[in-house]
Design goal:
This protein is mainly α. It contains seven helices and no strands. It has a domain of 95 residues: 434 Repressor (Amino-terminal Domain) (Orthogonal Bundle), CATH 1.10.260. The radius of gyration is 18 Å and the shape is elongated.
Amino acid sequence: MAKISSERESFSQRLRDALQAADHSSESPTELARDFNARFSGKAITVHAARKWLVGEAIPTQDKMRALADWLGVPVEWLRFGGEERQSDNKGLTNGMHADDLKLISDLQLLTSADRQIVREFIRILVRTQRERISSGDSQAA
């Protein structure tokens, strides 16, 4: 019984660490439930379930664990079992990315297709402007 309790507590600590690294509240079950449910296509979790995850009383099912790991940009194996490596490779897409960048991508996925297109176009404009500044030798470009 002590081993199961220890596993739950260890998971809880990793979850809180991953939430903080991704710039999300690690103390609010309400926020966790809301943000998780916004990204999860299965049955929504309750605030009570989120609280149990945060305080080490329960470990999510595999589908929810996978969704948490994808959302927070950490390997599902690390989130569930721990270990040294916590930077997600996510098929090479998130390796080396800052938590703020991962949160931005996660938030972008919540937008409508039309809104995502607007964001992409805005980014293209910013990148083009940045390249022009660099090529003209503008020291403010960095």
